[in-house]
Amino acid sequence: MENKVTVLIPAFNEENRIMQTIKSISNSRFIDRIIVIDDGSTDHTYEVVKKHGIEVYKREKNQGKGAALDYGIKMTIDTSSIIVFLDGDIGSTAIEAQKLIMPLLNNEADVAIARFPAAKKKGGIGLVKKLARSGVKILTGKTIHTSLSGQRAFRVEVLKQLGELPKDYGIEVGMIIDILNMGFIVKEVEVEMSHRETGRDFQGFIHRGRQFYQILKVLAKKYKEVKFR
Fold first, then answer.
1. Which of 58, 167, 195, 207 sits in a 20 to 30 Å window from 121, CA-based?
2. Which percentage of the chain shows pLDDT scores above 90?
C-alpha cells in the first residue's frame, strides 16, 4: 500500500471551531482522508461538518474520546498506512499536524506526538501533567513530556497491536504506556499549535479533577498488567 494518511477528529460540541480545524489541516498535501466522529454532541457540530461535505459520523451518546477514536480506527485501519489523531478545537493551527507525519514517512519513528508551546494563561497547578509523566516513567522507564497530547500520528501497524483503548481522558496515557512497552519508537515533535485552554475557574478545576481521576484509573490498570505480565 502507498502511504495513505487518514486524519481522525473526535468532536464534542465543537460547532464554533471544527471547520477552522478541518480547513487548516485540509491544506496539507500529505492528507488523503479526513473523518470527523461526532461523539454525541448536543450542539450543531454534525450539521456544520455535514453541510461542508466532510465525511462525518454521528454517535447518539457521548461515550468518550477513546470510544470515538476506536470507532474511527476500525473504519480506516485496513485502508490507511498512517492515522493521525487531531482534536476538534485546534483551529487554524491544525496544519502543524503535518510535522507529525514527516518522522513516520522518513522512518524515524513509529509514533509522533505534538509538543505544544507553553500555555499563554495559567491553568491548574500541574498535578495532572505530573501524574501522567510520572506514571509513564514508572511503567515504561521512559520520560515522555507529551503523554497528555491528543495530537498524534501512528503507523497503522502500531494501532493494530494495541488492545481496547481507554474510553475517557486516560486514552493518551494508556496508549503511550502500551506503545513504549511494545518497543515502538516514539518521537516528540515541537509544533506551533494552540487549542482552547482550561482556566482556573470552577469549571476548569472540575475538568482537571475528572482528568486526574480517570488517568489514575488507567495507570492502576496498566500497573496490574505490567506486574502480572
1. 167
2. 75
Give the other-Cβ count within 10 Å of 182's Cβ. 11
User: Mean pLDDT, to the nearest integer, of 199-214?
Assistant: 74
**What are the pLDDT digits (tens) for 128-152?**
999 999 999 999 999 999 999 999 9
Q: Which grid coordinates belong to 18?
A: 471544527
Question: What angle (nearest 5°) sits at the alpha carbon of residue 150, between those of residues 114 and 42?
Answer: 145
pTM of the shown model: 0.90
Residue 44 has which C-alpha cell? 450543531
Rounded CA-CA distance 116/10 in Å is: 19
Residue closest to 73 by CA, chosen among 185, 158, 14, 13: 158
DSSP for 54-94, please give it: -EEEEESS---HHHHHHHHHHHHTTT-SEEEE--TT-GGGG
Q: Is the confidence at residue 58, as pLDDT, over 90?
A: yes
What is the average pLDDT across 148-168?
A: 90
pLDDT in tens, 59-99: 999 988 889 999 999 999 999 999 999 999 999 999 999 99
* Highest CATH level, class, for 5-227: alpha beta
